[in-house]
Specification:
Chain lengths: 336, 336
Amino acid sequence: MANPILIETTRGSLVESWHRGALAIAGPSGALALQLGDVERPVYPRSAVKALQALPLVETGAADRFGFTAAEIALACGSHAGTEKHAGLAAAMLARAGLGMDDLHCGAHAPLGASAAAALIAEGAAPTQLHNNCSGKHAGMLATGVHMHEPTDGYWEPGHPVQQRIRRALEEISGVPLGADVQGIDGCSVPNWAMPLSVLARTFARLVTGEGLARERREALARILAACWENPELVAGRGRADTVVMRALPRQVFMKTGAEGVYCGAFPELGLGFALKIDDGAKRAAAGTTMALIERLYPAVRGLMPHGPIRTWWGVEVGAIRSAPALDAALAGLKV
Amino acid sequence: MANPILIETTRGSLVESWHRGALAIAGPSGALALQLGDVERPVYPRSAVKALQALPLVETGAADRFGFTAAEIALACGSHAGTEKHAGLAAAMLARAGLGMDDLHCGAHAPLGASAAAALIAEGAAPTQLHNNCSGKHAGMLATGVHMHEPTDGYWEPGHPVQQRIRRALEEISGVPLGADVQGIDGCSVPNWAMPLSVLARTFARLVTGEGLARERREALARILAACWENPELVAGRGRADTVVMRALPRQVFMKTGAEGVYCGAFPELGLGFALKIDDGAKRAAAGTTMALIERLYPAVRGLMPHGPIRTWWGVEVGAIRSAPALDAALAGLKV
């Protein structure tokens, strides 16, 4: 059966396009507070799990060994905009571990941030691996490997101890095995493991509540979350939802976008995690669904991320991106 | 009922995302050679009908009056890349009609072509309305208005004679009424009218066969098509499907992309038109479906527009964008 329509766009009096998807909201036990669509199909969380991929950086002692600041830990959890500040911080992380840009294997791409991309062009400079939105994550992975006396070459390979350590942490917190059958390679060359949205939602509930986790792990997760809430501009960038909302509601909302229409996050006060995937991978729909959910729970954020109007190039409103009836009904019925 | 899945993307051994949509292929009588999904719901064709929106430019005599070349007529049918050549040609069209850039009302946006956009940034220049991918269409509309002694101000309004003339031409060729109930405003501020894909497919079959149309209209359409086939780089831009395929198969394939996952086109030799819309508006899926159709009919184009592999930033293949079983089966069963 097809997933329900979560977001639709209009033009004139007609619906022009629509996005189907699935959404799970769960507590740390896995009890579902909401399920919409198929929440049991495995979904690659992509960059949405960067905060969990950063766990070994803290748990092995690598972050302390190299004196990583909260800002640097936040960058390791981020899909950053590739500004000079972001790229410089990634370079500093590498330098502390005795490494350089050429040790990265995330690959080079133009900065995600439009003004950062334009600045590079204006300078006549080519983007480097430091501008890759994942360079902080990769610097953290490399630092962990150096700390553990592991070879840095091949740190991105699924069989390398750096990636195996991440896989085990994800298995332990999620409670599901992550074998080769659900393994994919992300755009930045490191492995990513698919999990049902129901499992991702409870995993994010555990991330923010620590429920069922050992004290050391709870403390490491709390340190990672605090780093993100202190430095929301390093988790994404100026004007992006993760930055804007976490700056407005630190300690109330944790959220992280992933490629191909994924969003995961959690609400510590409510003891709930969420995970969603838009079938077609559209960012506008993943962001629209996430903002509809957060605005339902925290009306204070309404208007912070204007995501409604579709305009002409002169700014005249000619349509809308809006939540669809199935999503509205599910959110209206959500009991928290 | 949900439309079928036309295109899917994979990562590792899993399907990661998928795109639903509908596709109609029809002859000029409206007889459907293929229908997949709901082909009766009204769809805004957006820029896919630019060749038809250019018809009054030729039919009123405005193109002859101002000495428009085939290149300029092609630009009026195009969603161009905003290179210096494209913008300069639009400026020349305006100048011939005694107008200038400020008479345009398409609005300014960064060139669609990445290298054209980068060139502007490198010069420190802001994009103008001439760089708007629709500037050729708008220059043609303005020239028609001048030729017809109509006010240029407000030429973009649905009630202006320039737009009413286009609406009537679309009604006459499509054979359906285009009233306010199916009227939307495009991103470039001019009206656009929604039609079922079945109607759009037969409209494009009539565009290339001329069947059922008066001689003057057939000749005007033939002149427009010839202009596009002679100047495929003005209909889109370097590396884009419309340019690449029409350069390879002039007079065999006419094709034009539209926003929000629309594609329309026709095959003169076969006497067939096609129209498709991806539900979610994704360009990758509209292009993928179109190329699958064209490759089925003209195997010579295989490999011209590589649209398969999903790669890491290092170029390693980690997944694929591919036609889904429902599309494969429909195309395999297509009798031409």
